[in-house]
What does this fold into?
Amino acid sequence: MKEVVIQTEKLTKRFGDFIATNEITFDVTKGEIFGFLGANGAGKTTAMRMLCGLSLPSSGKATIAGFDIYKKTEEIKKNIGYMSQKFSLYEDLTVLENIRFFGGIYGLSNAQLKSKSEALVTELGLDKEAKKLVGSLPLGWKQKLSFSVAIIHEPKIVFLDEPTGGVDPLTRRQFWDLIYKASDKGITIFVTTHYMDEAEYCNRICIMVDGKIEALDSPTNLKKVFNTNSMDDVFYQLARGAKRKE
Amino acid sequence: MIQVNNITKVYGKEKTVAVDHVSFSVKEGELFGLIGPDGAGKTSIFRMLTTLLLPDGGSATVNGFDVVKDFRKIRNSVGYMPGKFSLYQDLTIEENINFFATVFNTTVNENYHLIKDIYIQIEPFKKRRAGKLSGGMKQKLALCCALIHKPTVLFLDEPTTGVDPVSRKEFWEMLKRLKAQNITIVVSTPYMDEATLCDRIALIQEGVILSIDTPAAITASYPHELFAVKGDKMSSLLTALNSFSKIKTAYAFGEFAHAAFYAHAISAQEMRDYLKSKSIEMEAYQKIDASIEDCFIGFLKN
It folds into this structure.
């Protein structure tokens, strides 16, 4: 039995009489790559904000990295990493300065910061760019750097919100190599994407429609159940029925 | 309709070349796609063609008007939907549309037929401020505002970025209907699968055009034999394929790995034996046609 790092039970978030996230129940295990899909407005972002300890649920239960989602939000924040397409790094700081800054915020000591930054820069092949401003790097590199910074404190879980949007096809694949590496190290990956080929790279995917989980299984099983050979079609069959437009 | 000759844009003290001698032309009524990742130069091209940015070299005409000399005429005859939402957030849907119609000396009624299909979807919320709309509704409103003065050319900069697959399909349906009204459309997208919905496309990366043609012609000219391979573990499968001498490149593509052979491919039995020697069980091996994404990766690898 694998260690469960995210566990939710009937987790719900209401805004007035609008139910953004409606009784979602699921478990994610250590090192799993968990894809979180849904149309715009399906409730993904609301769910993710609760799981990150940024927004309190209206009802239901959840533990993240072993911490209660109502009472231990600060502990949750220390044990997760987060990156999105929008929130990247500080463009007017250099690569090294960004690493030191975010590492410092996550509580790394000076000695740790020094060894970590060197290792990270080498691993990403950014030796030449280490002292350049992040703003001058191509988007693909920024995203790879941003991911590495999000896991610099070796969190139990990393949340990735559309990390590869707008990135070229080659860099997109290199980004997934980084995801696999992190997963091999035991970091749980919780990722949203609009690229259906990337859904195939996940161990399991959950598809949300109108605030509820409508499907949760491995890509292979989902395709079997929906009697199709493409994830695009699985998604289309489910999301087409959505009543709620964002 | 649009002629672009060696247009170039350079930014900043470091002389970063965003657009590097780009040339292409778009015919009347054509749906033309600029396909490339962020930072490829798509937005700079759009901003030069819509006269919002001066080129540093080369020339371009839209509707026969020069983008530098005749900028006022171009502004009257084109519609532009920027990638970033740029309408007035504190005006309602209705007020935004009326405002843009008035600025262009027309009325909503006069060109209502152009926006009707799209407008009826947001009409129930016409009293809502634009800033309070969801992403999908903002996008529809922006499209209405770009169309309200009956432009002859419509420039759409990444209209589907960050939009889910179902809404993306709907958006392209809308574009097809606009094209049927003989509006020339230039659209950019980072999604390779949308390329096939255009009449002709330009693949672009780092300010340089890699290829311009119909999507079918681009995929037909893919120079390698391409195979989809499936094995029990993707990462070891890719390593094995990439170290095989007859294979130029292999990369993940959904549940399969795509392998491009230099010349002739090997038989299924040969592949099965090879993968077995690397302790990988082969589950599928079939020749496939290249997609636009395969072609793009092919260009990047060269």
Summary: The longest strand of chain B covers residues 16-26. The longest helix of chain B spans residues 165-180. Residues 222-301 of chain B form a domain with the Alpha-Beta Plaits fold (CATH 3.30.70.100).
